[in-house]
Amino acid sequence: MQVCNVVKFKVKPGQENAFLDAHRAGKAKWPGLERGVIIKTGDQTFCLIGTWPSQEAMVAARPAMIKTLDSFRATLDDQGEGRGVTDAVSGAVVLDL
Predict the structure, then answer these.
(1) For the domain with range 3-92, which CATH number is right: 3.30.70.100, 1.10.357.10, 3.60.130.10, 3.90.1170.40?
(2) What is the tens place of the pLDDT at every residue in 38-65?
(3) Residue 55: which H helix or E strand, with range?
């Protein structure tokens, strides 16, 4: 069963290039990731959307994803309301458009 994860980020002013560079050139090529994209959703907000073959594959890649996050954590603002610097959700694909 295919799974997607979505992670929302709020990037500090002037840090957009550093944030994007942390994902370029294979730096975010996590084991099992089928496809990943980053979309700009506002002035300083972005979402990373990843597609995985299974929940187990995504869970197995979490240490690598956290390692990548640690490399650019300083570029991020806290999102408030206890979310910290990331706001992540994931789940099984129920309809493929």
Answers:
(1) 3.30.70.100
(2) 999 999 999 999 999 999 999 999 999 9
(3) helix 55-72
